[in-house]
Amino acid sequence: MDFTLPSDQIYGFGERIHATKLDQGAWTMWNKNKGPKLDDGYGRGVQSYGTHPFLLYKNPVNNKFGGIFFRNSNNQSPIIVFELVGDNIQTNLSYITTGGKMEVYFFFDGTAEEIIRMYQT
Q1: What gap in Å lies between CA 86 and CA 73, rounded to an integer?
Q2: CATH topology of domain 2-120
């Protein structure tokens, strides 16, 4: 499943040891019973105990936030690639999973707090 997001200001995929803002690359998630490593050598951080396949992004045009929650218990690897389009950076997000029942929820046009509240609800 592929998406184009309006900026490179993307946050999430929690329970990892990394900076809050996400970089380019694969963000593989798999439920496991294993303690975290501090660094995977690529600067993205390694997944900790649980998986939280939710991301928050900021639209630079209206300064509103949006969110996407990928609900799936199978192995999943969202891949983030930044692309310069004119004077703006956009994000190409490819969501790859090994199967399972997948539900995708979209949250639009709110503050970061409002989007996270919708996700938690």
Answers
A1: 38
A2: Immunoglobulin-like (2.60.40)
In angstroms, the CA 4 to CA 81 distance is 10
Q: What does the block give as tokens for 43?
A: 């600067």
The pTM (predicted TM-score) of the whole model is: 0.83
Q: Is the pLDDT of residue 108 over 90?
A: yes
| Residue that the structure tokens 């609900």 belong to | 71
Could you report the per-residue pLDDT of 88-105, keeping only the tens digit for each?
999 999 999 988 888 999
- Cβ of 53: how many Cβ atoms within 10 Å? 20
What pLDDT score was predicted for residue 114?
Answer: 98
Q: 1 with 68: CB under 8 angstroms?
A: no
Containing H/E element for 119? helix 112-120
CA distances from 85 to 53, 56, 65, 115, 120 (A): 27, 21, 20, 26, 33
